[in-house]
Amino acid sequence: MYPQVRSEVSKIDLEHVEEARFVRENIERGIVRLACHVFPDEYTMQLETNITMQEFYENKQDYENFYKLDDTFHQILFVGTNKKRTWHMLQQMSTHFNRLRLLRLTSDLTLDVLIIQHRKILQLLKNKDEQSVDEVVAEHLNLAVVEKEVLIKQYPTYFK
């Protein structure tokens, strides 16, 4: 900000994006493995409801509410494993990563892939399939890496 002159939106820093994605991927993989052992039914029900609402907002093309639900889906995993402070720590370092995620949702890239992966994560948690849920979460959080190049081509001036 330049007081009494102008405000500028900072560009998305891809180094910050990658660092936050790396940290989140590695921590969240641990979270879902833990959830296979200690995840109360009430949180499983919250995930199911969340996915249903994601589908609703996908059909309405309401990206803002979809983004909030996507975030909440992951937050439920942390809260359900009693790692709420870990979630807050990740959010503090994920500003640029979250900006990339929001840009992805408002672009031409489809949301159904995210919903399909969320459904897989939920089913694997129910089955307590620690190995497979670990792999799906890694794949899910690596979408940012795959789609980053598409977004850079589509919005070159948004990136540092």
TrEMBL record:
Task: Identify the Gene3D superfamilies for this entry.
Answer: GntR ligand-binding domain-like
Is Transcription set as a keyword in this record? yes
Taken from the record, one Pfam family name reads FCD
Q: Which SMART domains match?
A: FCD
Is the keyword DNA damage in the record?
no
What sequence ranges are listed for the domain GntR C-terminal? 19-143
InterPro entries noted in UniProt: GntR_C, TF_FadR/GntR_C
Which keywords appear in this protein's UniProt record, sorted alphabetically? DNA-binding, Transcription, Transcription regulation
| One of the record's GO molecular function terms | DNA binding
Q: What is this protein called?
A: GntR family transcriptional regulator
**Organism of provenance:** Terrihalobacillus insolitus
